[in-house]
Design a protein that fits this description.
Blueprint: H1 2-9, E1 22-27, E2 33-37, E3 40-44, E4 49-52, E5 56-62, E6 67-72, E7 79-82, H2 89-100, E8 101-108, E9 114-121, E10 128-134, H3 143-160
Antiparallel strand pairs: 1-2, 2-3, 3-4, 5-6, 6-7, 8-9, 9-10
Length: 164
């Protein structure tokens, strides 16, 4: 019963999609709300954000700053939000990012030219997509790296029956 009361008292974001549920939320230092939902990271505040989990590359909690941060695979700038009392948000954040990852393969030619090839699931629709995330400074046009990425893409697609 106390868990239900606590959930009822969680701050709620605006504009949830049909069927979307808030799994955890917390008040932001700027007066907004950060919510971990079944489908997305939702931030209503000075740095608003609405991002499906399959586009969140990673993130974490910086306890020395009371800050949760996120990086994205679609070119948007990394985000960071101050949560004076994060409660279960940090664990829910991690769980949702991981829930969207189906398979990952790391490839690389040397210390600089590396990439992660990731098969991700859109948690709202169930659709699968493949992402290639190059390490900083990597040359995606380097023939050896391109070949390794293409091979990894083919293997991941084959594992789940995607046509390429």
């Amino acid at each position: 019963m106390s868990i239900l009361r606590r959930r009822d008292k969680q701050p709620q974001p605006e504009g949830l999609e049909r069927g979307e549920r808030v799994l955890a939320s917390a008040a932001l230092a700027d007066g907004g709300v950060l919510a971990v939902t079944t489908y997305r990271l939702v931030v209503d505040g000075e740095q608003p954000e609405r991002c499906p989990w399959h586009l969140v590359d990673g993130g974490g909690w910086r306890p020395e700053r009371d800050e949760i941060w996120a990086t994205f695979v679609d070119g948007r700038e990394p985000g960071a939000w101050v949560l004076p009392d994060p409660g279960p948000v940090t664990d829910a954040f991690r769980e949702r990012v991981q829930a969207s990852v189906v398979l990952t393969e790391h490839v690389g030619v040397d210390r600089r030219d590396k990439a992660r090839v990731v098969l991700r699931k859109d948690l709202a629709t169930g659709a699968l997509s493949v992402q290639t995330i190059y390490s900083e400074g990597a040359d995606p046009d380097r023939p050896e790296l391109k070949e390794q990425v293409d091979d990894a893409l083919a293997r991941l697609a084959e594992h789940v029956g995607l046509e390429r």
